[in-house]
């Protein structure tokens, strides 16, 4: 069995779903919080908690702004987060290939 470590920040199921969804966006593209929440079918509180952990790891940026008088929050996968997800998927593939041996 290969000695592979999976990034614990990404490995939690909800954070993996967040990062995988953000990775489908173009580099530097953002998604509005409500749209991400709807795509992932998560409560606002649950999504916020996982985004905080990803933000603390510098895997995402959370930008709070206003559109007119309405507060708006945008989420973006950072280059570091994108690379962490690539390494995670490569490590997972390696692990799975080793499991079949």
Automatic annotation (TrEMBL):
Superkingdom of the source species: Bacteria
InterPro entries: WH-like_DNA-bd_sf, WH_DNA-bd_dom, WH_DNA-bd_sf
A Pfam family that the UniProt record links to this protein: HTH_34
The Winged helix DNA-binding domain, residue ranges: 15-95
Name of this protein: Transcriptional regulator
Species of provenance: Oerskovia merdavium
């Amino acid at each position: 069995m290969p000695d592979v470590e999976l990034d614990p920040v990404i490995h939690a199921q909800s954070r993996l779903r967040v990062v995988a969804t953000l990775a489908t966006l173009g580099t530097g593209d953002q998604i509005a919080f409500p749209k991400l929440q709807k795509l992932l079918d998560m409560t606002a509180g649950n999504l916020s908690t996982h985004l905080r952990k990803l933000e603390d790891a510098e895997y995402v940026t959370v930008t709070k702004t206003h559109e007119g008088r309405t507060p708006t929050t945008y989420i973006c996968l950072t280059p570091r987060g994108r690379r962490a997800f690539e390494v995670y998927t490569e490590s997972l593939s390696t692990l799975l290939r080793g499991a079949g041996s």
